[in-house]
Amino acid sequence: MEDKPEIQVPRVKLGKQGLEVSKLGFGCAGLSGLLNAPLSHEEGCSIIKDSFYKGITFFDTADVYGHNHDNEFMIGKALKQLPREKIQLATKFGITILDDGQPAVKGTPEYVRKCCEASLKRLDVDYIDLYYQHRVDIFVPIEDTMGELKKLVEEGKIKYIGLSEASVDTIKRAHAIHPITALQIEYSLWTREIEDYIIPLCRELGIGIVAYSPLGHGFFGGKAVAESLPKESILATHPKFVGENLDKNKLIYARFSNLAEKYACTPPQLALAWLLHQGDDVVPIPEFAIMRIDNHTTSKQNPCRSTRTNESSLDLSVSAYKDNFQPRPDPIRQHQPVQS
């Protein structure tokens, strides 16, 4: 089995505990539906392998993704065809589906351990590199949840601990029990609220930022603008993608698309380049459902390189928004997409 990636994506440290990942990760949720029709395991495994050979080694899933945990089963199959020691695998616990189909959040110590054991079995691995609490259970002290996660680290079942969509207070309290390696949270050109308090705190504590929905749920890839939404997509009812809000957001997309064209790259490349430029502690995890990996990486030498000769899209993003958006220093914030 050929196990050397064809493209060398830069590698960065997440947190201060030693986890090293590819600068661009892969959000696997879309392989099992949600934003589109679910793929077969054969198709999903092929895409995961293709992503690995394009330099992506950081793969993100969760026990709630897909019907009957389909996503973890799919990732487990793909891992059997790849060198496990070169993969950084992240999964999550904490969201459960009730009998009436409604989601609920659960973070009791017993549930933490039950979920971890089940994920290890579905993924068919001996350990999980990064294990997140998917959502914080406000009825269970975070200290109790973290205490059980700490035990799982000591037992070697997980290597690093992460949180997802946690508040400043929760992050501080959790980090006091055991070092948090990464915070997964939505971050993109149209979701920047975390810049005020969350990112400064994470940098103070040495916690990495894993940015999900880095293309604005596909907005910067043209979803609902340049192409229609899949009928299976939950975005069909998302406030940013319907009615008057969508009409106004289309104007923003048109301007952004023109800007990308000026710099000889695609809109998703420019959006990702901006995010990649926010620091080595920020790792985007775009989903397959949003855009194929080929549209994010345009060069076998550098996944952050644009079609313009000898110029990285990281540099392009900086010069583009400095030249075209006012006022500084947060030139794109004034053009936030419309959401009621």
UniProtKB/TrEMBL annotation:
Residues covered by the NADP-dependent oxidoreductase domain: 23-287
Q: Per UniProt, what is one Pfam family of this protein?
A: Aldo_ket_red
Q: Which GO terms describe its cellular component?
A: cytoplasm
InterPro entries associated with the record: Aldo-Keto_reductase, NAD(P)_OxRdtase_dom_sf, NADP_OxRdtase_dom
Name the UniProt key words of this record, in alphabetical order. Answer: NADP, Oxidoreductase
**Record-given protein name:** NADP-dependent oxidoreductase domain-containing protein
- Please tell me the species this chain comes from: Liquidambar formosana (Formosan gum)
What domain of life does the native source organism fall in? Eukaryota
Q: Which GO terms describe its molecular function?
A: oxidoreductase activity
